[in-house]
Specification:
Helix content: over 70%
Order of helices and strands: HHHHHHH
Number of strands: 0
Structural class: mainly alpha
Strand content: under 5%
Distance between the termini: 42 Å
Shape: globular
Number of helices: 7
Length: 190
Amino acid sequence: MEFLLSASIGLGLAAACGFRVFVPLLAMSIAANGGHLQLAKGFAWIGSDIALAAFAFATVCEIAGYYIPWVDNFLDSVATPAAIVAGSVITASMVTDVSPFLKWSLAIIGGGGAAGIIQASTVLTRGASSISTAGLANPILATMELGGAVVTSIMAILLPFFALFLVGFVIFFLTRKVFRRKNIGPDLTR
């Protein structure tokens, strides 16, 4: 049961990295610093005061950058690989008492994958908004993404199983929408 709980927290926080890279790291650092999260061996640095200050500064910079039209598109190109790495690290930092192979497989496939899928959807949405509104609607998207990152991060820490269910539903919805639009996959109507 402890494995499922820690994996749920890790995967929920990893998915939040798809919205904003540093918001879930900041939330995790605050929770670990306050003694509310137990981090895996070798990841205690995430809960240190220095890491907390660094994540807070990076979060403020990231949030501010997404409110500048066209800079947000540049940030998306940098944030995509960063979100996948952060999602993998966050998941690995939460999973304890399993073999390193299982830990890093779950971290890379589950955590990195969840962050990557959410990040890809935000990139596509911002790209469409940049083209259709010349970037004028992008601050609205930035606010929605920030809200998604904050809510998902808090839920992952306080209600991890619900957060994991919600993340699974969102990922299912997004992939289904993409496959429908592209007509990829088997035709099940026959």
